[in-house]
Amino acid sequence: MKEYSTKDIRNVVLIGSSKSGKTTLSEAMLYEGKVVDRRGTVEGKNTVSDNTEFEQTNQKSVYATPLYAEFMNTKFNIIDAPGSDDFCGGAISAFKVCESAILTVNGAQGVEVGTEIFARYADQYNKPMIVAVNQLDTEKANWEHTRDTLKEAFGKKVVFAQFPVNPGPGFDGIVDVITMKYYHFTDENGKFEESDIPAQYADEAEELHMELVEKAAEGDDALMEKYFETMELSIDEVRAGLRAGLAKREVMPVFCISARKDIGVKRLMEFVINVAASPAGETNKTVGGEEVACDPSAPVSIFIYKTSVEQHLGDVSYFKVMSGVLKEGADLVNPENGNGERLSAIYAVAGDKKEKVSSISAGDIGCVMKLKGGKSDVTLAAPGQEAFEHMVFPDARYRCAVKAVDKNDEAKVGEALNKIAAQDPTINVEYSKELRQTILSGQGEQAINLVKWRMNNEFKQNIEFLAPKVPYRETITKVATA
Q1: Which residues are bridge partners to 435 per DSSP?
Q2: Is the pTM of this model over 0.85?
Q3: Closest-CA residue to 161 (of 252, 244, 246, 269)
Q4: 110 forms bridges with which residues in the sheet?
Q5: Domains of the chain and any CATH numbers
Q6: Contact at 8 Å (CB) between 107 and 42?
Q7: What is the pLDDT of residues 132-167, one digit of tens each?
Q8: 360-398, pLDDT tens digit by residue?
Q9: Reduced to 3 states, what is the DSSP secondary structure of residue 156?
Q10: Are 169 and 138 contacting, i.e. CB atoms less than 8 angstroms apart?
């Protein structure tokens, strides 16, 4: 893999409700980026993103998986986040290292509760969102309902960049109101024919095009002046206006896709490259309040946003280069405790595929193995720099007591639980001296059940869950004489 400059990198996180097709979309993106020659399916248990036994067995994502694709001379870093709020920690970690989010919406269901939950997380972390209405090829696809729910949920931010032709099992075309072209898809591998918009769709296309141009003009005063003079903007000017609107989070462009049939995915990726922000010019705040620019000429610093324990590899730390250029063999320091780390080898990562690289520039994402203190939410940097602000996760919403089935295994169980908690910051393990119980807490029952599965299958430890004891207390209420 060649080394990409900061301006030629795009970091996006895929968010949305469960069953909206995020993993299938990531697979289509990898196919367009030539990372895979054949697209896997969730049902076939062979996607790059869902590569763990638990995910394949349950056919759903529970980890935020980093991926990449090389497309249009750009490195496309993609983080496929889980769709269940019980595993929201993956999305929150991804917001720390991604500049934009693609919000996937089920074209049959429209905006769901999960859609709104993850959109609120994106708002909380000030991330621009591009909407991808997916699964428009399904039997129950309902474009009108989806369009209306988007307007109802997100109001005036929503602007339609496309609308579908023949939504349902016969879905095979998209009218793009940015380019004002019709794209007819001829197979299920992303091939299409470009032509003028058919007459029966011309009026709707013209109406949506004017709305889009007006929204783009609102993003920049100079564009607004030109629009008032000419009542039109060029494609490049529309992109510039949308870029400004996205940066201010005043615009949510809507695209139409079928990830399963690779319809519209290439066009979505083109838009992200042309309009969404690159890491260049972005700044990240340190614990002391200093703003550090994502500048490849600055001293090197990285932020570890995720860790995992992988079979045959051991501890793997996933990071973003926040400044400078990271080279293999670099010696860095944890600014918070002064401990040094040597990054002997660094890798570009797509699921469980690791490709060794000699250097990674500011703004890019990679991984390193077997660091002594390379846990998540840790900064490593050249001497003299501050640590970056820490990630903040929601308070636990579900708790239970946990104990080893065999009392002789209590020490091993405690060690395994602490390893799991180190990999998922939304999982907390603590021993209550008052209750004399080990208390396990997380975002929901699904997250706790995953812990039990991992204990049984990965760490080979049998545990059982119990209701936490209630800490009854007594106090003196009045004085008595006897």
Answers
A1: none
A2: yes
A3: 252
A4: 106
A5: 6-278 (3.40.50.300), 284-381 (2.40.30.10), 398-466 (3.30.70.870)
A6: no
A7: 999 999 999 999 999 999 999 999 999 999 999 999
A8: 999 999 999 989 887 899 999 999 999 999 999 999 999
A9: helix
A10: yes
